[in-house]
Write a structure and sequence with these properties.
The protein is built from 13 helices and nine strands. The radius of gyration is 23 Å and the shape is globular. α4 crosses α7, α4 runs parallel beside α10 and α10 runs parallel beside α12. The protein is an alpha/beta fold. It is 48% helix and 10% strand.
Amino acid sequence: MKLFSKRLLKKLAFSGVVTVILLIIAEIILSWLQIFPTDYYTNTPNSGFVWEINTDEITGIHQDSEVSFDELGARSISNYEDAEHKMMVFGGSTAACFALTQEKTWPALIEKKLGNEYWIGNFGRPGNNSTHHVLQFKHMLEKPELKDTKTVLVMQGVNDLVAYLISSDRYLNLPELKLKKFAFQHIPDDYLPWYRQLTLYKLAARAKKNIKFYFNHKDHLTKTVLDIRALRKQSKILDELPDLTPGLTRYEENVKAMIQLAKEKNVRLIFVTQATMWKPNLEPQYEELMLTSGFENNEAFYSTTALYGGMEMFNQRLKTICAQNNIPCIDLQLPKTTESFYDDFHFNESGAELTAEQITKELKVILKN
């Protein structure tokens, strides 16, 4: 019996050693192949997903959304290497437009309207605000492929307002590492423990994430919309916002930081104000579509009148700073109906087209100067 146990232990030890050696060899080969990005990317290069859209619940969108990212991590519809004029778009979900299939997003529509000499890389990332855009501006334009970018277009404001309302402390004081991890899907991983830097570990983590996404998020948009609509109907609605002064001050600092970076990198910077469906006395059929809370965990909701007032303050601050610094600012004005939006501020198909038409019209004038 003892002899049998020793033989078993020897076999197990030998198998363990062989397994470790094979894992080391696999890690060396996989690391050499550079499967995972080791630089700053807002989204995973050469990846994509599909969002299933319930067209009965999401007004103005008529198909599932196919989302894909090119080798730079941008939503794009052409090859950046073929373009004479590279333009980058930064923003939150209203720039990312994940509910709209690739060619129906407003950045893609603008590219079509401007012509073949233009490439527009959409680096929008849901939830990002001006603090994240400063980091993206700083790191993305350092990429060799993007150093000759001529124009950067930034649509922002609503996530600054909402993030400040949800947690003023987080908005004002979040550490830079946490900001980077939200601004980018990938950042250099030298801050991680050694085992999490291993390619094998990352492969296992990706597999887990993909499985979770497939089962829990393929219908994420429709499910989220329906859940929040139901919650809002039974929640407390508040008509007064807190003092926005500290948030507006930080917003101004971020806008000025981007203006300075644009000068340093010799690119034309253009801002776009945030259009929303919010307004005083919003019609009941549109009020039912509102989703934005302004509170942690949706524990209460601010009224559309209150949110309208806050958004006006952030948009006006942006326009004032741009005027003072001679920076173009496109004041996006859209119908506050389902002609433009499927909820508070996310564009549906016709809204993206209206947005592209207005921005393109003003862009053509700006780019001539």
